[in-house]
Amino acid sequence: MSEGNGAVVVAAEGLTKYYGKHKAVENLHLKVHAGEIYALLGPNGAGKTTALLMLLGIITPTSGRVLLFGEELRDSSFALKRRIGVVSEYQNLYTSMTVWEYLAFFADLYSVDRKEERIEYWLTTLQLADYADDYVGALSHGMRQKLGLIRALLHDPDLLILDEPTSGLDARAIEQVRRLIQAERKRGKAILFSSHILTDVERLADRVGILHQGRLLVEGDMEQLCEAAGKETQVEVQLQSVLPEVIAALRREPCVHKVLEENNRLLITTSKAADSLSQISQAITSAGGVILSMQTKRASLEEAFLTITNANVTTLADGLKDR
Amino acid sequence: MRFHIISVIGKRDFLISFRTFWFYGALLLSLLIASFSIASYLAYVEQNGLLVIKNPLFPPLIIVTLVGAGYLGLWAAISMATERIRGTLEVLFYGPVDVISFILGKSLGLFGVYPLIMLGWTLYIFYASLITRLPLPEHLPLILLLSSGLVLDVIGFGALLSVLLNSIRSTALMSIAIFGLSLAIPLGEPFWLEWVAYPIRQQLSSILALIRWISPFTYLWQGLLAIEVGDFTSYAFNLFAGMIYAGFALGLACYSLRRKGVRRP
Question: Which ipTM was obtained for this model?
Fold first, then answer.
């Protein structure tokens, strides 16, 4: 799915936030549409949470403005806020309430119809039904994360804003949350989530914005991101047999930067020019080579992310550890 | 919509306040003080055969009123500070909650606890009067009306403190210190006036005048004294002024919270 399929739900225009002299977010422009999953990807401290909190009106931007469903969000925009569901990285729950009381309280705040039914549905869906009478303070981290997710979904919001939604969850719960996010997207909801977990972004997002040191470096779908990641692409060519003339012919081609040989396979690093593939195949066949297969290898999100952010190893390692 | 949010938050806080150990602790404390006070009358009568005192159950009732109001003010301060500092306030603000509905919801929820406390204490005073044959306090309904009206002063002040300070501990300690001083200075006035030399007494009186302006107990205290001396104009004035004070404290708390933001410090 690409940009423009649904109405614009979130529009950030030139959002900037300074804490003293420290620039947390700079001139952020982004749009999220109905029926779209947009991921803000960035290493820890990139400004993702600040950006999301500015969108929610919790942090006042130094400059710029936010439109949600075409309206500016104010402290007292009750009707507008009812259309938003939020999961924060730290759940900040009322630990002295039971799970049921907690959800019933928020259901009342959001004026949810048939609240008992909704609460039961979500508790069952996210396998928390057995814990309904337990105190929130007694829940594990993963369960608290799920409880936060239920709170965000209880009132069936049109926009979901999720800050690191799978942080601290086990593999099964992560898969469950991913399926749930995809299901909400299918129902036409706009979903904006932040993550430093590359797998989440790769598997969920229709569009990705890479935020680094407060700046949105690049934005687009996976294809566009990988395009933006570099000027080179890799082509893998399987030949009947590799002749020295073929390699020599390839090396003479201006678009070819590097040729590696492995059994009857050639790994060719080439420029991204549109006609480079035809030039390669022509060079091979004219030198007497017989092509069995030929495919372009797309850069992974990880490679794209690294290239774009020039991230240091430590911050990337944090992300990879969570995969 | 805002009214709905206020009622939901208020109902939640009303119910939760009965779950805390401190609620029952405060009740027990005021029960002990009031009972000690009544027991001292009885001991005096037993020793001397006679006790000449006007309105003997009035002081225990005042103690109960002040302890109840002080507890609710302290609880308001701690509970609002906890919401802000632990980040639950931020979560509320993701949804349809604004500064006014939060402050009013929390305050009115606690305010709703007070009539129940006073109902219990009225029954206690009736029972004490029945078994000791001490007369009931004069103008009991006026006392209940005044204290029920003006407990919001103390809650509003607690709300303001919770917004101004940045930790739960400092909020609790500051509240205890301010509420303690606000009560101790006027209550102790007759005693320290006797013991302190004239120039210092004058200075202290000026400080007392200042405290009267700030203290959330001022109008409650003066209203109760007005009842005791039968000055109903002063009673009505203090009731009215106390309501203005409550509105001002709550308004200032809302303003400060809006300025400070709901993000956990």
Answer: 0.86
